[in-house]
Specification:
The protein has 385 residues and is mostly beta strands. Among the domains are: 87 residues, no CATH class; 64 residues, no CATH class. Helices cover 5% and strands 43% of the residues. It has two helices and 29 strands. Strand 6 and strand 7 form a beta hairpin.
Amino acid sequence: MQRRSLLLLGLWLALILGDVVSARASQTVWSGLVIANNVAQPDPVPAELTRMESTLKELFGYNQFKVIGQSRKSLVTGSEDWMAQSKYFSLHVDSKEGSDKTGYLLDLKSGKATNVTGALRVSHFNEGLRFVPGDPTRLRFSAMIGGKTRAYLVDRDGKNKRELSKDYPHLVHGMSLSPDGKRGAYEDPAYRLFLADADSSNAKEVKTGQRFHLVPTWSPDGAWVLFVAGEHYDCHPHVVKADGTGLKKLASRNGYRGVIDFLDVYDFHGGSSDLPVWAPDSMSVFYTAKVGKNVELFRVTLDGKSEQLTDTAAGSMHYHPVPSPDGKWLVYGSKREGVRQLYLMRLSDRKEHRITDLKKGQAAMWPSWQPRAALTHRRLTNALS
C-alpha cells in the first residue's frame, strides 16, 4: 500500500475489518479489508458498509472508506473459517473466536496474520498490541482481567506471555519503556512515580515531595524521564535521570491546568491532557504555559533555560506540540479567534504556517509526523520561504 509522503495529521489509517458477531449456522457472513482516510470530497461509502457508516465515522474519525478485499461465507455448521482477499494481503477469519478482542501481527509481505494474544490466551479483551522499543522479537499488549487492565510481554509467536507488573496490575497510564526496552517508568493508582526494569522488577519510587505524578516518558537517548508533578490540575514539567538521581523541576505552567476541554466542538471524550514532550536531541522539552489569559508555547533546556516560542493575540491557546524527527520543525494546535487549527513552526526563525483551514464548529487535534520526513521538510521550506 502506498502511504502519503507528506506530514501525517492522522489523515490515513489502514483498517482490517472482520465483522464476526456470534456467527451461527444458516447465516451468510461478510468480512472485508478496508482502507480509511480523510479527504476534502469523499466518495460515497461502499454499499457493503452502508449499515455501519455512522459507526465507522464516529469511532475512527475518517470520512472516506474503500473496500479493497471482501468475502461472503454461507455458514452451514457455524464453525467454518473464511478468507477475505485483496491484491495487497488477505485476512483469515476464524469464526470460532466469536466477539473476542484479539491482537494480530500481520506480515504484509506474506499476508500471514498471527493471532498473538489468542495463543495461551490470558483474556478475551486484549488491546494495544505493539513492539517493545528496540526489540523486534517481543511485543506488548494490555489485557482486561477481573475488570483491571494489565500489561503483558509476549514473543512474536504469542508464546511466553509474562505479566509486566504484578505488584501494580492496574497502572493508571500503563508503563513507559526506555528506547532500548530495558527500563520502565510508571505511576501507580496513588499517583506515585516509579522507575523499574521492563519486567517491573527492581522498582524504585521517585520521591519528589509532590502529591501527583503523571505520564512519565523517556528521553530519546534513554538518559532521562520527563513527567509532570504537583497538585491536582496544577502540575509542572520535571525530569529525573534513568537511575533516579538528578531530579529537578524544569519550568512552571503558571496556573495552566494542562487540559484541553472540548467546549467548542462535540466529542465523545471529555477532554485531553496537554503534556510536555521531548525534543529529538534529548536536550530540551516543549511545553505550554499561561501568559496572561493566553496559553503559549515554550521550550526549556535541561538546565532550566526557558524561551517563549509564540506570542499571539489575547484569548489564544496552544496545545499538543510535536517536534519533527530531525528537530527542525514543530507542529501544534492553536485556538485563535475561536477555532482550533494546526500550525507548523520552523524553529530556526519561529516562522509559522497554518496547515488547516477549519470553520467554527470544527477542531484540529493530535498531529503526528511521518517518520521519513525529509521530503516534507524540503516542501515546507519552499512554502515558508
